[in-house]
Amino acid sequence: MAADKLSLLHKLETDKEDSLRINFVQAENSLNENQQKLKGLNDFRLEYTQQLHTKAQQGLSSSGFTQYHSFINKIEEAIKQQANTVATAKRVVEQRRKLWLTQQAKVKAIAKLIEKKQDEKQRLEAKAEQKMLDEFATNIFMRNKLLN
């Protein structure tokens, strides 16, 4: 009966571990996507800054320069926001990784307990079988002794 309860507990905890693993993988994927967006924004800023430099060398009006500079500032603000999103995503990944690893340890502990219970059961069964064989051998010995 206790083995059935442990098996049920093991299944429930394994299902929970699977769910936590999926959550962790999803968080990692989200982090990767956000890091790619940040890289894209940084690349865009660099490209736009290079455009400004090229246009400035060719001769750019002050209003044109102001527009470029204003747009670059907007890109930099977007980069800051995306960097914050990436930092948050990293924290979520770490949190979910810890939850998953903690659950893994719990599942392993339950599996170890089940294994220990099964070993104990087998040991007791072997002991009972040995006792029965000893009694059988004793009965045969006594019967043979009485018959002789």
From TrEMBL:
InterPro entries: Flag_assembly_chemotaxis_eff, Flag_FliJ_proteobac, Flagell_FliJ, FliJ. Pfam families: FliJ. It comes from Pseudoalteromonas obscura. It is a peripheral membrane protein. Keywords: Bacterial flagellum biogenesis, Bacterial flagellum protein export, Cell membrane, Cell projection, Chemotaxis, Cilium, Coiled coil, Flagellum, Membrane, Protein transport, Transport. Residues 72-134 form a coiled coil. It is found in: Cell membrane. Belongs to the FliJ family. This is Flagellar FliJ protein.
